[in-house]
Amino acid sequence: MLEVLALHRLHVEVPVRAEYVGSVEAAQMPERARNEISSYLGGMISRSEGLGRAQSAWWTADPPGPPPEIRRLCTCPVTDFDHASRRAIDRLVTMTPAQAKSGLVVFIRDAADDGNTTLLCLKMLLSQESFTRFLEAAEAADAITVDDITNILPSPEELKKGALIPHPTGTADLRVVDEQMRDAAEYWMRFLGARARPREPELAKLVAGTVLEALVSITHDEEGARSAVAAELGSVVQGVENLSVRDFVQAVGVRAETDTLRLLNEVEARDQTLLQAETILTPIAARRVDTVIELDDGIKVRGPAWALDGRWRARQRQNGTGWVLEIDSVRRPEPKRVIRSQ
Question: Where are the domains of the chain?
Answer without folding.
Answer: 2-124+154-196, 201-286
